[in-house]
Amino acid sequence: MMSYRVLLIIISLCILFFPGERAGAQSQVPMSPQTQACIGCHDTYSPGIVKDWLSSRHSKTVPGDALKKSALERRISAQSLPKELAEYAVGCYECHSLNGKNHNDNFDHSGFRVNVIVTPDDCKTCHPVEVGQFSGSKKAFAHKNLMENPVYQVLVNTATGLKRVEKGKIVSDKPSDATLHETCLGCHGTKVQVRGMKKIATKIGELNFPDLANWPNQGVGRVNPDGSVGACTTCHPRHGFSIEVARKPYSCSQCHLEPDVPAWNVYKESKHGNIYSSKHKEWNFESVPWVVGKDFKAPTCASCHNSLVISPSGEVIAERTHDFGSRLWVRLFGIIYSHAQPKSGDTTIIKNKDGLPLPVTFTGEPASEYLIDPKEQAKRLTVMKGVCNSCHGTNWVNGHFVKLDSTIKETNEMTLTATKLLLEVWKNKLEDPSNPFDEAIEQMWARQWLFYGNSIRYASAMTGAPDYAAFKNGWWYLAENLQRMKEWMELKKKAAGAQ
Amino acid sequence: MMSYRVLLIIISLCILFFPGERAGAQSQVPMSPQTQACIGCHDTYSPGIVKDWLSSRHSKTVPGDALKKSALERRISAQSLPKELAEYAVGCYECHSLNGKNHNDNFDHSGFRVNVIVTPDDCKTCHPVEVGQFSGSKKAFAHKNLMENPVYQVLVNTATGLKRVEKGKIVSDKPSDATLHETCLGCHGTKVQVRGMKKIATKIGELNFPDLANWPNQGVGRVNPDGSVGACTTCHPRHGFSIEVARKPYSCSQCHLEPDVPAWNVYKESKHGNIYSSKHKEWNFESVPWVVGKDFKAPTCASCHNSLVISPSGEVIAERTHDFGSRLWVRLFGIIYSHAQPKSGDTTIIKNKDGLPLPVTFTGEPASEYLIDPKEQAKRLTVMKGVCNSCHGTNWVNGHFVKLDSTIKETNEMTLTATKLLLEVWKNKLEDPSNPFDEAIEQMWARQWLFYGNSIRYASAMTGAPDYAAFKNGWWYLAENLQRMKEWMELKKKAAGAQ
Amino acid sequence: MMSYRVLLIIISLCILFFPGERAGAQSQVPMSPQTQACIGCHDTYSPGIVKDWLSSRHSKTVPGDALKKSALERRISAQSLPKELAEYAVGCYECHSLNGKNHNDNFDHSGFRVNVIVTPDDCKTCHPVEVGQFSGSKKAFAHKNLMENPVYQVLVNTATGLKRVEKGKIVSDKPSDATLHETCLGCHGTKVQVRGMKKIATKIGELNFPDLANWPNQGVGRVNPDGSVGACTTCHPRHGFSIEVARKPYSCSQCHLEPDVPAWNVYKESKHGNIYSSKHKEWNFESVPWVVGKDFKAPTCASCHNSLVISPSGEVIAERTHDFGSRLWVRLFGIIYSHAQPKSGDTTIIKNKDGLPLPVTFTGEPASEYLIDPKEQAKRLTVMKGVCNSCHGTNWVNGHFVKLDSTIKETNEMTLTATKLLLEVWKNKLEDPSNPFDEAIEQMWARQWLFYGNSIRYASAMTGAPDYAAFKNGWWYLAENLQRMKEWMELKKKAAGAQ
Lengths: 499, 499, 499
What we know:
- By secondary structure, chain A is mainly alpha-helical.
- Chain A has helices spanning 2-17, 33-45, 47-54, 63-66, 83-86, 92-96, 120-123, 128-135, 142-147, 150-160, 177-182, 184-188, 243-247, 249-253, 263-269, 271-279, 301-305, 374-388, 394-427, 440-461, 466-469, 475-498, and strands spanning 106-109, 112-115, 163-166, 169-172, 193-202, 205-213, 290-291, 309-310, 316-318, 330-331, 339-340.
């Protein structure tokens, strides 16, 4: 090991004295000596990371210059920065060395104290407004909202627990960390924990690294070793941190897809998605602010939900937000009914009239005190309509949302119809209500709102994907599944009577 | 309101006197004064529309020049045009002011009489051949063929009607307009009706607009307020009207997708689709005529079904058509069996031997007098083979279609097998034949031909997507679903006996 | 015919004397006289083929120059070539005339002896290393492995045989050649057979061609008329033979897709796929060798499984291979359990302890003597980790594969649980074990490992597509399907008792 460290020092010194000789030379802006040292090794041992970073804006600008941009053009929301960050490219060391004392994953790596994971609390050094917005959003609570809600826990455990047949009954273990990580927490985010240090064999010999549990993971509500929540890399993947990637719909598609949240599938088949697919090669996904009609001619997810969008004449049409629900008035995702958006991103605080931590009761009554009121709903709808108005007349836009309202109401009624059937099943003791997700009719009922109701509402909201409302997990399935629930119930009744 | 009108007049006058000062300046060709006035406001209030139009050929040429092109290069099929249309760019006013007296949606908008909806009857001013071809196609009758066919109406109502449980039975309402609009009529087209006028709050105050029911909608068989049918914007979306968008497969994918019509899904996974995905960035989707081998190297939907395709040496391989079935000899979409293409686009006139408005009887006998005869079938197959021959030898092409013939025959036989099971179910009074779509075995039967039979036939027709014929809604499902029909029937029999 | 032959000779002579006058002129390199004659006709009669070839590297270089490239840059693996091949572009005649005496499809075509099908045995004239690697792979045995394995034959016949209802029972024929061709053999490859010669009507009159059965087909394990196996055109489609097409994931997607092998679906939704979709337009898919970080910044299928990948500094990260399993240690595709990769590409030689030609017994015991041992597994895993290390630290990579190991173990256990239920069904004579794929519970059991177990393992292997592990054919389905198996078994039991 000694000789390895000596080698490292020599490499670092070489770089300091001949700074133009290596990968760094491709960067137009000064790199800190520490970052040069990082690259000195990693350009050999993980070149993909280095080249990716070299393609990033982080490598091509210094924050000091970024601060000088006009308000609309700024990509940085800090008002000022310490000198050592302002004058260098945003390199390896600049990000991985921040707030080390808060980081359980901080360690000595070849003479430098670095953190394995760069967290939102680190990113907020330069991007405090974005991290602030994010921290109040449902996304920031994605881990907690799932893992600390007893009802959802029953669903998670029933679906993902390892199952055995014992004495004719299906017995389920609690899900393993690995399986949770790959299923629900792949999107919701794991709790990354430091178990200590361990030696790992690498190409340059054994090295000491923090021993991380539930890692790697980029779930949007990840709980980090510095206690912060979230992962900016969910949408801005390392180490290019490209705004283009975040604005293109593929990022969102990783989690928002069929059968439970078919936002991506519906978008892709909609008229907006069609135009995107055919024409986006001519659009500009890099410019800040983003000019409707000039930079893009049909929206992506980001246009309607997040980005700072302005008109060609410079009028702000929608402010940038990293609170991803803040332009939304209604939550299409039914649990179990579609409902007004929750007031707080932390939905574990909700208690409905049944005493359950759900935004609506089993029979459809909303837990209104935890949900935004009609006035706030109207305000948010107005913001969204403003985006639509960039390309559609008011008459058109109003017609669209009247239709969505009707669909929300009808799909909620279909959920109620299925729920009434389930209540009858339970009343007749054909299935056991203690776990509402583990028997055949119960599972049909869950499909009704989780798969089919949601599909239809997403199809309605992004009008123009009729098959997601009709045949593809849509009304056909709603009708067929309801019929099967009923006929299955009758067969079970007769079988019970025949015993 | 007075001051608003004065303002408008001032804006219009300004534009007339300083025509180079605004958005219009980006257009290379003269705009009519009326269109300049439109843009004067809409560039501010709906800039996306204006910018999209500025990207269109309509904004970059005048019809007078378009008329001078050679026959093969022409994108306009009128022989002559009135002077006021020939000399200006095809702008807002040129399209939205046509045939006002036929339009129930004609209204006074800031001093101009305009129609909300531009219809095929308006487009045919310049494109009469295309509209003429379209008007005889099944697409033009897409609304009528669905909504005025009593059998399909039962299917539509059963699937999309709101359902309640009453005294242990599932009771279905008639579907709402909103739900029809978002499901079946999203593709088939709504009947847009003018309910009168209404005041709408816009950014510039309250304005009077026609109050339109079932709007917005771009379904291909839309019934318009001028009595015409169709929507050119289904494939040529406003206001770019791009031929590139229409030629790329995403347009077709909006309606022709799994599970009932998986043309897009199959194409995407086929060898043609694979080459398209990998290489289309190098192709030319704008040129007229479209040169196989030069402009594109693998077909999209439009190459085989619609476009004017010529060889590099100038030979016409296929004439342009907007009668979308005119190169087709067989209708893969089984209702309930695959059959020869109907003679008329209006399929409500068909009556089969069972007296039903279906092209084939329940047991497979075609209503031949309403379907094209073998001679016409052969003629159309020859046209299609001509397209294939651009890139494939005759031996190859023949082998392909022999395979397709076999698959049509076999999938039809599988439908017959399922139908015989259903007849047995009905004979045994296990389900009620009065509605063939509302009970469990009936719904399995519908899946058999609507989802699985269709998938296999589309996969066969665009050979190279084997999973859509095998596991993905293919033969696996045909076999499994048939088995379930049978076993479900047996369980119902025993349950009936146990009563 | 005589005058046609005379015409041909005249055309050929014209081309020989005025070689710059036709399509050939677009090629920068000399074409053989024979190829010029081919093009003389085919440029008129199948121009798409000619133009596609003109876009290929085969038309733009001569093998003699290709031989001079450095080892890493070479796209040709022969050490030397006969003069007549080395000095001309790789044209029609160069490929279609090779090894004619081995080809049952060799025939006289307008005075030239040519083969209809160019096979791997022909391609190996220039590419012997690639064909050699391929010939030992499972892909080369894709036809045999499926069609000569009695267990798989039961599955194939049950799914794809035409079915009738006779005396209340479903009776299945053997599948037709056409249906096999379009389903299983679409990917696995048909056995192309020459039935003799036949006259075919073409645009230039009747011509004599070999009469080929099971043609056209590009399945990867196709059995060719020269006795060789495979089709290079599966991934390098004719006549562009583009390395770009082979490296882009769409090629693989044709066969590796949901529900049984959802590699493409999972990739597309993964972080790697997301970055590919957003950024691949900026990457270089043509360069040999392929430089990670420079030519591409996120992997496609080829990066990890096949391509020669080097680092920006020139270090070889992974050698090129056309033995597509050679970097794989475990076979995710469960039959019926996931297991170590087979030693031989020919899996028909395997016999497990139950005496069945399957790599694992019904209860999970692997046929270890036919599978690679832990040492070979470790060696292959090291190669794959080397690819990952280009962009990910060792800690990250190790964490990923620990997770995959856990998932393989758990999904195998879930298969065992379902298998135990099935054994109980058989023991109780509720279904007949003589065919394990043709009754309702058996088919649910097949879905358990073929659709759901596989989906979860693929999602795990390309971490970042959580919905394919959770709701989309994932754990939700595993749990629900298991529950249905059990409840269906109970209903059948009661129905049997009620008889």
